[in-house]
Write a structure and sequence with these properties.
Blueprint lengths: L16 H5 L4 E7 L6 H14 L4 E4 L2 E3 L3 E3 L5 E3 H9 L11 E5 L5 E5 L2 E6 L4 H7 L1 H14 L2 E5 L17 H7 L3 E6 L5 H10 L3 H6 E9 L3 H15 L3 E6 L27 E6 L4 E2 L5 H4 L4 E6 L10 E4 L1 E2 L2 H11 L1 H10 L3 E5 L1 H5 L3 E3 L10 E3 L6 E18 L4 E14 L7 E5 L5 E4 L1 E3 L4 E4 L8 H10 L11 H19 L2 H7 L5
Parallel strand pairs: 1-9, 1-10, 2-9, 3-6, 10-11, 11-12, 13-15, 13-16, 16-18, 18-26, 19-21
Antiparallel strand pairs: 4-5, 6-7, 7-8, 14-17, 19-20, 21-22, 21-23, 23-24, 25-26
Amino acid sequence: MPMLSSPPEAEGRRWGVEEVGEMSVRGLMIQGTASSVGKSVIVAGICRALRREGFDVAPFKPQNMSNNAAVCADGGEIGCAQALQARAACLAPTVDMNPVLLKPEGNEGSQVIVHGRPWGKVDGRNFLQVRAALKDAVMESFGRLADQHDVIIVEGAGSPAEINLREGDIANMGFAETADLPVVLAGDVDKGGVFASLVGTLALLSDAERARIKGFLINKFRGTRALLDPGLKELESRTRKPVLGVIPFLDELRLPEEDGFFLGGAGQRWPEGRRTRIGVVALPHLSNASDFDPLASAPGTAVRYVFRPADVDECKALVLPGTKNTVAELIHLHESGMSDAVLGLSRRGGAVAGICGGYQMMGERVLDPDGVESGLKGAPGLGLLPVETVLTREKITGEARGATFQGEDVFGYEIHVGRTSRVDGTGWFSRLTRRTTGEVIEDGCAVHGGRIWGTYLHGVFDSAEFCRKWLNDLGADLPGVPASARDSVEDGLDVLADALIRGTRWTALKEVMGLVR
């Protein structure tokens, strides 16, 4: 494991702990009883609601762990949830919104991204040491945001009741105490056990931490409110803290999920009446799952994860997604029989596409001579494209746009390690211009008239003209260019903000933030 150095210096003022604590920042921190209780979406909803009322609001997450990353204009990486929250606040995402991002690499630890750039690796043996060392980077970013915006809405990570991780915490109560922010605790009623989760979380906190929690939000409620009310009253009686809102389950909310698995799990049936069935190969270390949201929202199109070779039989197309461990994923595909299923679909005339790591896997081989991703030195690819990849320590990140070999406009972002070369020098997928450097490149590879293709361009299906053409080639028969998935996200953020205002004691919530006197 490489030696971890101090965080890279950022331009401008460096904020110390004492300075941030004296700032009297307006805002709050949303913490949760567990992961996946809806913290990211709640923060996005609050940001959009406040922005519509004219507040200059920004999102912040001190430490995130996710392989679903977005790229900022300067090429820096942040969690995709913070990019969505920035959009909710009508801001361009910046690396200060998520100064520390941990990207898991199989079972061997995580890559550490600080201020948008690779910083080192961490595993269970040195996690606490590294986390303490990153506190300055976290507070520096928070201080800059507080200088630039009137209100900061902060998202916690996991649960503050992880008592084994409390020492040196920068993600939950440790951060809230340093920044002197009030906390609202969210729980997921849809999973069951929400009252026990809320009361149990409080019980594991110190007196000072409990005092910092100003109330509760109950998320994902569906059913008759009268059945919930007795529990709410007893919760308030036991804890002497108010329930600040009950947010409804928004079944049709089509917003990107941080960890992506919103296309359905193993055994799920294809939706009725949708003829164009597209499978996304469910890799164990899949990343950037939001790449496929535009496909899922297209009329007549069904998209779901495929876990077993038999799941491929009814697909018209397969997409191989990105991953943080390409060689290990290739070995998994070969050993599970999924590689034979992918090749079988291709031989039957089905379409196969790959994005980033998925594109690398479609080639002749992937080599990792320097152990960039793991101790595995390489693996044979699927042989669908005449390319080969050598993984390198250099990481390429940044936005790009251009046109495919058939002329459709495409845009998105790169975020990958490795160099991929076409062994016969022909068959590029798109010609792109990189935003940060102005460099023009030939990206990806396409063969068989575009039925089989791969690209490094995340977000390529957000390009509406290209998406329509590809779906129509599969038989979707879309009459015109479909509405951009970006437009549906905007609509979703407004629906979310409306539901949050209706479901909460909105004025009381703003009082907690210091916005109402």
